[in-house]
Specification:
The protein is an alpha+beta fold. It is 41% helix and 23% strand. The chain has two domains: 2-296, 2-Layer Sandwich (BirA Bifunctional Protein, domain 2); 308-396, 3-Layer(aba) Sandwich (Rossmann fold), CATH 3.40.50.800. It has an eight-stranded mixed beta sheet. It has a five-stranded mixed beta sheet with strand order 13-12-14-15-16, with helices on both faces. A three-stranded antiparallel beta sheet has the order 2-4-3. It binds adenosine monophosphate (AMP). Adenosine monophosphate binds at residues 52, 82, 84, 89-91, 94, 96, 260-263, 284, 286, 288-289.
Length: 397
């Protein structure tokens, strides 16, 4: 994942594990306290373990990075903490890999961002993932047209988020909407057909313009990044108030209930934290879930292999053995040395458990000719090798 991020020109940053509680309540309201680890420190300050990294990265940006040339491409990798009820794929401490793109809101910036999220998951070996793309500006414009109040929207959004469309329709009827209008809205939320959506937003300049841009971005995803397995899903609301415009999610259907691997979109936090307004967009991948999805897809994880294990055959050979290991390490060979002074037989057994390629036996007889015994752990073959040749031999194994 790191190499994919850096191949797109992103730079890695780190922020503290805890922040002032206010950072998260300012962003998500007091209700967030129920969902996070919040506590007082010895100085009586209200702190919180971070539940996500977007707010911390934005705080960091406002404090230190506002003068940097734009766009700024930042990625991070770290622990997050949520007071969730633990279950498969949902933990109280989990890892997120994510990024923020600061200073641009062009269609190409959005296309590149979604492509990055998709490729991060593809490049680690996942085969079955879906991209769903929505837009909150279009959704808000439709809410406006239907004349829904703030309170009515608040009531509807969690239902839309959970795809409870029958309930959405009931609530809309209770709000006094004609059944036909309510039905059309629910159809609009569920369709990914561009023509149907276009027809639905026709006559609403804000929504029309936003949809044209969305289409341009989708064209770029297909033509420049060869990503075609996306769906428009206007029912994505991401459950958060600070998202604006683009929103997207990537899921691994194989995971069942907790299938969402990635969530992101455009948001507005910089002015809230006292900075100068600037476009911001980003996403976060649930790293643990990505691993879980790989395991479920029966991905064969590469086994870690150690290049060499050095065994001193007696105590007098310890100094030479450590020296040999050190020379190899300085030449990018991974090496361990027996540190328990056990006999050769037991040390060889231990080396086997390490999945090591070669064992180097350092003994007095071999040293008389400046040599050691090199054992190929795959074949069991042993040969006498000059110390000056050990490096190239081990590297060629
Ligand atoms: P969010 O910040 O809620 O949009 O989450 C981004 C991603 O983090 C989700 O798509 C999940 O993959 C992952 N995630 C969120 N909460 C948890 C959790 N409690 N345990 C494991 N992964 C999580």
């Amino acid at each position: 994942m790191r190499s994919t991020f850096t191949s797109f020109g992103y730079r890695e940053i780190q922020t503290p594990m805890f922040e002032n509680l206010e950072l998260f309540t300012a962003k998500s309201g007091e209700g967030i306290i129920e969902e996070i680890y919040a506590f007082k420190d010895k100085g009586g300050r209200d702190l919180a373990l971070r539940p996500e990294l977007t707010a911390p990265v934005m705080r960091f940006y406002v404090e230190k990075l506002q003068m940097e040339p734009k766009p700024l491409k930042l990625f991070y990798f770290g622990s997050c903490f949520r007071y969730d009820r633990p279950q498969k794929g949902r933990y109280r401490e989990f890892q997120q890999a994510g990024c923020e793109l600061i200073g641009t809101n062009t269609t190409e910036a959005y296309a590149e961002l979604i492509a990055l999220a998709y490729l991060l998951l593809k490049n680690i070996g996942l085969t079955n993932i879906n991209v769903n793309i929505g837009n909150l500006t279009i959704l808000s414009a439709v809410f406006d047209r239907l004349g829904l109040s703030k309170d009515q929207r608040k009531h509807l959004i969690p239902l839309i988020d959970k795809s409870l469309f029958d309930d959405v329709q009931t609530v809309l009827s209770e709000c006094g909407l004609e059944p036909k209008k309510a039905q059309d809205f629910v159809t609009f939320l569920q369709t990914s057909d561009k023509e149907k959506i276009k027809k639905f937003v026709k006559g609403d300049p804000v929504a029309e313009n936003e949809f044209t841009n969305l289409e341009k971005m989708l064209d770029l995803l297909g033509s420049s990044f060869q990503i075609k397995n996306y769906q428009i899903k206007l029912s994505i609301v991401r459950g958060l108030d600070y998202y604006k415009g683009l929103v997207f999610e990537i899921e691994a259907p194989i995971l069942g209930a907790e299938k969402q691997l990635c969530g992101g979109g455009a948001y507005e936090l910089v002015p809230l934290f006292g900075g100068t307004d600037v476009p911001t967009v980003g996403f976060a991948i649930g790293f643990d879930r990505a691993i879980l999805a790989l395991e479920t897809e029966k991905f064969s994880f590469p086994k870690k292999q150690l290049d060499a294990f050095v065994i001193p055959v007696n105590e007098e050979m310890i100094q030479k053995s450590l020296q040999l290991a050190q020379i190899l390490r300085q030449n990018n060979v991974t090496v361990d040395v027996d540190l328990l002074r056990r006999g050769v037989g037991k040390a060889l057994k231990y080396a086997n458990t390490l999945n090591v390629k070669t064992v180097l036996l350092v003994g007095p007889k071999e040293l008389e000719t400046d040599s050691v015994t090199l054992r190929d752990m795959k074949t069991g073959n042993q040969e006498l090798v000059k110390i000056s040749d050990v490096l190239s031999k081990v590297k060629n194994m």
